[in-house]
Amino acid sequence: MANSILHKANTRGDANHGWLHSKHSFSFANYYNPERMHFGVLRVLNDDIVAGGQGFGLHPHDNMEIISIPLQGDLEHKDSMNNITVIRNGDIQVMSAGTGIYHSEYNKNKEDEVRFLQIWVFPNKKNVMPRYDQITLKTEDRHNKLCQVLSPYPNDEGVWIYQNAWFHLGNFDADVSTEYHFKSKDNGLYVFNLHGDMMVNEQRLSSRDGYGIWDISSVTITANSQAEFLLMEVPMTL
Question: What's 139-235's CATH class?
Answer without folding.
Answer: mainly beta
